[in-house]
């Protein structure tokens, strides 16, 4: 009986200890099922900054496929995520990239960022496009980009150029810009010279009689 009692006490202590070790593990697993760290998040290698109540997160420019250069004069896609922490809506009215692009287009017009809400411009289709690059743009370079908000003002970011490989291979480059086609008769086009008409002036005059 003594041996049996001693053995049961040892076994009971062992089980209690094992259970004590398992409880935090099980609790951690349960919490982890809904933990933000286990949720899927896109790659976040881009620039981050704030202007007033507006936060810009994961801003980057899409470079060439497989680390190739974006040629001078071409266009480039830009992606980012906006969050507005204030109680009133704000608006991204314009973007510029001085020294890098001649112009930057918001393809859908100005972007509203709702109060305590977000505007997702993170792709994969670009809503911000840099046009007419002033020089070839390699992946790995950084570009200064100015974002102008209606209320928050101007936010200047140093934005990286990410190669269109791996995770970013699913992102889209900007569509080619449509070239302007001149219509016939438009300014700057040559007007064809009409061919001589065979009118009355081209026929010999009836009054011109041969000299005897």
Summarize the topology:
Blueprint: H1 2-33, E1 47-51, E2 54-65, E3 76-84, E4 90-96, E5 101-106, E6 111-113, E7 117-121, E8 128-133, E9 142-149, E10 153-164
Parallel strand pairs: 2-10
Antiparallel strand pairs: 1-2, 2-3, 3-7, 3-8, 4-6, 4-9, 5-8, 9-10
Describe the protein's architecture and organization.
The chain is 15% helix and 34% strand. The chain has 212 residues and is of the alpha+beta class. Strands 1, 2, 3, 4, 5, 6, 7, 8, 9 and 10 form a 10-stranded mixed sheet that branches. A hairpin with a 2-residue loop joins strand 1 (47-51) and strand 2 (54-65). It starts with a helix and ends in a 48-residue tail after the last strand. Residues 1-11, 18-42, 180-193 and 195-212 have low confidence and may be disordered.
DSSP summary: helix tally: 1
- Counted up, domains total 2
Mean pLDDT: 76
- Cα end-to-end separation: 166 Å
Residue fraction in strands? 25-35%
Structural class: alpha+beta
| Unreliable runs | 1-11, 18-42, 180-193, 195-212
Give helix and strand order, one letter per element, not per position: HEEEEEEEEEE
CATH C-level class of the largest domain: Mainly Beta
Secondary structure tally: strands: 10
CATH architecture of the largest domain: Sandwich
| Rg (C-alpha, Å) | 35 Å
Shape: globular
Fourth-tier CATH superfamily name of the largest domain = PCu(A)C copper chaperone
The CATH topology name of the largest domain reads Immunoglobulin-like
Helix amount: 10-25%
Summarize the main sheet: 10 strands, mixed
């Amino acid at each position: 009986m003594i041996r049996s009692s001693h053995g049961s006490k040892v076994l009971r202590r062992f089980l209690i200890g094992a259970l004590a070790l398992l409880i935090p593990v099980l609790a951690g697993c349960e919490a982890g099922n809904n933990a933000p760290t286990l949720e899927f998040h896109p790659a976040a290698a881009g620039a981050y900054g704030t202007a007033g109540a507006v936060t810009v997160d994961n801003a980057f420019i899409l470079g060439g496929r497989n680390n190739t250069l974006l040629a001078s004069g071409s266009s480039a896609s830009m992606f980012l995520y906006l969050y507005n922490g204030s109680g009133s809506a704000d608006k991204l009215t314009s973007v510029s990239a001085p020294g890098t692009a001649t112009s930057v287009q918001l393809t859908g017009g100005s972007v509203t960022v709702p109060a305590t809400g977000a505007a997702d411009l993170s792709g994969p289709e670009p809503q911000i496009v840099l046009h007419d690059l002033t020089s070839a743009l390699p992946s790995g370079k950084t570009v200064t980009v100015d974002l102008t908000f209606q209320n928050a003002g101007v936010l200047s970011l140093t934005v990286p150029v990410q190669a269109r490989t791996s995770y970013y291979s699913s992102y889209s480059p900007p569509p080619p810009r449509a070239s302007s086609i001149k219509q016939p008769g438009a300014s700057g086009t040559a007007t064809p010279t009409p061919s001589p008409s065979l009118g009355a002036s081209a026929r010999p005059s009836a009054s011109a009689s041969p000299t005897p």
